[in-house]
Amino acid sequence: MRKEVILVGSGGQGTLLGGHILAEAAGIFDGYNVSNSGRYGAAARGDVTVSEVVISDEEIDYPKVTKADYMICLSQIGYDKYKNVLKKNGILIADSFYVYRTEHKNTHFIPLSEVVREKTGSEVGTNIAALGAFVRITKMVSKEAIRKAVKEKTPKGTEDFNLTIFDIGLGKIKEDVKVDEREQDLQEEYISILEADIQQR
Amino acid sequence: MKTEIAVKYLRQEKLPFIWCAGCGHGIILASILRAIDGFGWSKDEICIISGIGCCGRTPGYLDFHTLHTTHGRALTFATGIKFANPALKVIVVMGDGDSVAIGGNHFIHAARRNIDVTAIIFNNYIYGMTGGQASPTTPVGKIASTAPYGAIDPPFDIVELAIGCGATYVARGTAFHVPALDNLIKKALIHKGFSVVDVLSPCPTAFGRRNTMKGVVENFTWLKENVISKSAIKGKKGAEIGKRIIIGEFLNIEKPEYTEIYKRDIIDKVRSPSP
Amino acid sequence: MPLLLSGNEAIVEGALASGCRMFGGYPITPSSDIAEKMSLRLPKMGGKFIQMEDEIASLGACLGSSLTGIRSMTATSGPGFSLMQEHIGFAAMAEIPCVIVNVQRGGPSTGLPTYPSQGDVMQSRWGTHGDHPIIVLVPFSILECYTLTIKAFNYSDKFRTPVIILSDEILAHLREKIELLKEIDVKVRNFPEVPPEEYLPFDSRYLVPPLAPYGKGYRFHITGLVHDETGFPTADPEKVRSLQERLASKIPEEEVRDMDVRYMDDARICLFSIGSIARSALRAVLQLRKKNKKVGFIRPITVWPFPYDEIKRLSRDLDVIYVCEMNMGQIVGEVERAAECDVRFIGKADGTIISPGEILYRVMH
Description:
By secondary structure, chain A is an alpha/beta fold.
């Protein structure tokens, strides 16, 4: 069994840390073999960041993602850039505020950043909430493993906060909106506003 | 140099020196040895390191731990040796091109760190060994094999450079004013921190010959006539000093030394459990 | 408990476990986190970290500290590695042990700072002027980043030579699970067997003469000039030849050779690769094997000295060797020199990893 996960976001959303935590959970606490790598660059300044995690119960030869089984996506431009990496029937977990249009059938739009903002006043931790949703939907790694990895990898003093956010993601937040319905909801105007916003960023 | 000092510190089988007649380098070397002998240091605790050039050959004659490195990089090796084993006394001898041209970057950073290394610069205004090319201390207008119409690049003042970069002992001497040089080198060697002695050393072969000072005597006479000591200029006006080069001690201050700071503020701190 | 480490972190663990207690470095992507981790960890073990003014100085400081008997390391990438060539030559000539990590990135010049390449394979062998011995180890996993660093220190002390670890940007920031060794096989350099008055730092009776540390009563001279057994300069052709021949023969291929050879028993085709790209090649081999293709896999771990004899022997039963490397064709020339079969090249240097799919496509067509 070899499963490939790709996490895509904008600089500052904690994409790389999210991948690191997932790899730590799967590798160290759930006992799989893992390979985790990031793509960085000017990402700290708002560019698209990508973290790849390969999880396997066999020796991992090629350590990078070729065709991902799962994608966690926190940014529309990130999706547009990396959509071809996700298998056609791959599972996509998308933040419904930052990602508004996808081509994958198995898209789970989840208002991760909105709920985190509602509950904590800021969007810090959306990456951790996304891991919660990932565990709930894919069952690839155990909740306990992620909890342990979160404790280890998040800054001292923020562990409890991050664990709370993980639980938010883990719980079913709202009915996941299916891709078709969502497409209808989106007004052209709304899209153009978002596009302008993204370009500004 | 006194016979007993020569016998004690020179590798006899390596003599004679490769230096030309009239070169000042041997005089500076004798001065260094007198200072070391005066302190009674063990030969096993002394490291002497050089770069490339006439001056670079100095360590080869000396019965210490000696290291003849690459051009301009002597201070980098010296930094590693001192940092790894602060018990060693580390002396670097460099030429003018060696220290402030190709090695300029290392020079300014060794000074900035104030690491306990003594840098003695055998400054003869020229690349002697390679045939008299212009160096960063060649005075404007002087002739060199790569400055056949006279040098136009303004020269470095090594004393000011060293002070500006953070050295904590800075002096200038010459191979003519030997008792004064003995004193400056002694003080530099016992100074804790980065110490620099810029020593003007005649090079009749590569510099003097091209600049109307063919003979050995003329070269030393030039030093005699064109140098004035710091103590001698007290009370004198600018016009009286003229263009003469000032020798003496320019800076002697105490500042925390690099290897000591590393031990105190880093090693000891991270190793002792915080209160 | 196993640890999830990046290649750069694993190199740090390997160095510290080997007793490396001095690191002189200069920041450069993608090697900087080695320096960062060393600056954090070394003082806790009584070791020293110094950030030098450039890469020339970094290696200079390491060679200085190594002369006092302390295991020393530096790490850099492409442009910094170019600067270090001067002191790699000095270390080779003066026979001073040291470990140099080169985390390869795209080149030439500033190149592609955050993208991988294997463009320094030949530079790691011939980057400095003059004939000189060198050992170059190429890890292909995070575990090997760790174990080869330990090996690098042992080789550098045993053979009195600079040892280069040729990592790359892929391994630098790839995280994998590794179990650190409880017992490390540390073989420090030999101390002279003779008293100081009889000591010759370049004693030609040895293939690798013992190196006395500075400050222990052995006063001797070291120079980058060609020297005789005493360490003093010479231009006597006989003595020069004696030194050159000893240097050329002091690292025996058979002893330091280390290769990862798989599926070669019945192979007619072989994929030959080093470092991180060997991971792609291995995947391609496994997929071809699933299609009943008789494909084997060869990966030199010690790339210099190059295993000419071994490649020659292995190639006799092959029809073709495909050499996969992330450059425009470097190690392939060495394979051509050694192999007695057809040799083809699969490579690129565009900053992207050669994927198993690209290799498969080339082999199938």
